[in-house]
Each structure stands twice: as C-alpha cells, then as structure tokens.
Amino acid sequence: MMMLGAILGDMAGSIYERNNLKTDKPKEINLLNPRCKFTDDTVLTCAIAEAALSDRDYKKAIKEWALRYPNAGYGGMFRKWFRQDNPQPYNSFGNGSAMRVSPIGFLFYTLEETLAEAKKSAECTHNHPEGIKGAQAIAAAVFMARNHKSKKEIKDYIEQTFQYNLSQTIDEIRPSYSFDVTCQGSVPQSIIAFLESENFVHALQIAISIGGDSDTIACMTGSIAEAYYEHIPQDYIEFALEKMPDDMKQVRDYMEIEFKKRLNIRGNNGF
Questions:
Q1: Which helix (H) or strand (E) holds 72?
Q2: Cβ atoms of residues 134 and 184 within 8 Å
Q3: Is 269 inside a domain boundary?
Q4: Looking at the DSSP assignment, which residues form a beta bridge with residue 22?
C-alpha cells in the first residue's frame, strides 16, 4: 500500500470537488468512477515523500514536482509560488500543507520527529500557525494510527494538542458545511470522518459525503485510514495504480521499501 490511502482519497474526491455530493447515505457513494483522476494533492504528496526519503529540501522537491505537473489544480497563490526562481513562504493557512504531509507520518521514528518534520514541510509555503498546525495534526494522526493507537487515543491527542473540536458528528456537520480550503475548516472534518469510519472504503465515503473540498478532505482522511486499518481492497489498489504515472509509482515503491526497512530496524515499538 503506502501512500495509496491519500492518493485514492484524492482521486475519489476529484469528481466531487466542484460538484459536491452531500448525502446521509455515504455507503452508496461509488468511489471507483472512471472519471476520477489525481490532482495537486497527489502530486505534492509524492513531493513530500521523495524529499523525506532522500533528505532533500522540501521546498525544492515541492517546486520540482509542481513544475512537472503544472496543471494539477493548484490554488492561485501556490501557482505563483512555484513559478518563482526563489519562492518564499506566503503565510498561508490553506489545507495544502495538510493534504501533502502524510508520508511524514509513516517515515519517522518518534512523534516528536514527526511533528518537527511536518512543521518543516509546511513552512516553506504555509508558514501561518494554522497552516503548520494542520500539517502537524494530520501527520500525528497518521503516526499514531500506524502505531496501533486507538481512535480514542488519536482523538484525545489531537484535541488536546491542536485544540481542534472533534466532538461533532458528520451528520451534524454536513447540513451547514460549505467549501472551505483552510486547515481549520477542513482538517478537523477529515479526522472526524476517519473516526466515524468502519473501514478504509467507508472512511473515504464519509469524507466525500459532507461536501466541501472533497478531494483534499478525502485525501487527508484516506491517509489516516490506510495507517489505521492496514488494508485497502485490491480493486482499489489496482484502480489507483492504473491512473498513476511511473514517477509516482516509483516514489510509492521506494517509500514502501524504506518503511519496511525502518520497521525491521526499530520494530513496531515506538515506530
């Protein structure tokens, strides 16, 4: 698997981002629509993975991948950023920092390292405190999920550390929820979708069912769900791989090899 949770979330949500589907019957949502495609969420997740795997500068990797896929659906400020010779952070609290961060949750040995790397990966663009916080929250949730922490432990930590309110249910959020690309307006919702889910597929369905920035919410939810459930159905894996270019597959393969190597070195205890 490795990274496919985020990528599948991005792909599944791609057709609903501008054509929201709000439904109180999320299990009826078809996630394997032929029109699904990867967007900027996937491109930049690959950039973060490559940088974290090779100790590259996050800014350079993000810029390089964005230039390689310049029409993947980036926000206006980020489009200006990656086209500059020496781009500088622009004080953003958008959810771009959180949508791309999940590889960090898989690759580092301690929660402290994970939080530090998440901050580093965010602040080259999203150096607003909320932008950093959103990235750290998703990375921490992934880290805790892959270390077999319970949903209650994950929920309590995220609430206490980042002051996100995770007490609302998706059914309570859905009626008034609107398109919101801020970290504070989408990260908590993506975590709640995971907390309410029964399995990986159900997590993506819940995430999409509230509307809003569907691809990014499902991307964030999917990354945590992959780490927690440790299972993605084979037809979903094949669906994602068929739509991924070779460079993305190579990063994913390298990440899986490196994750297993680090797991063997340290074991599941604390990793």
A1: none
A2: yes
A3: no
A4: 210
Q: Is 184 within the bounds of a domain?
A: yes
Q: At residue 41, what is the residue type?
A: D
Q: What stretch of H or E contains 133?
A: helix 129-146
94: Cβ–Cβ under 8 A, 6 or more apart, which residues? 75, 77, 126, 131, 181, 182, 183
Residue with tokens 């299990």: 27
Amino acid at 186: S
Task: Decide: 121 and 48 in contact? Cβ < 8 Å.
Answer: yes
Looking at residue 166, its amino acid is L
* Distant-in-sequence, close-in-space partners of 253: CB < 8 Å, separation ≥ 6: none
Confidence (pTM) = 0.96
Separation of CA 6 from chain center: 5
- Total Cβ atoms within 10 A of residue 33: 14
| CATH number for position 48 | 1.10.4080.10
Give the model confidence (pLDDT) of 178-224 as tens digits: 999 999 999 999 999 999 999 999 999 999 999 999 999 999 999 99
The domain total for the chain is 1
Per-residue pLDDT tens over the stretch 147-175? 999 999 999 999 999 999 999 999 999 99
Residue 268 lies in a domain: no
Beta bridge partners of residue 182, listed in sequence order? 94
Total residues found in the chain within this entry: 271
Which of 41, 59, 94, 34 lies closest to 242 in space, CA to CA?
A: 34
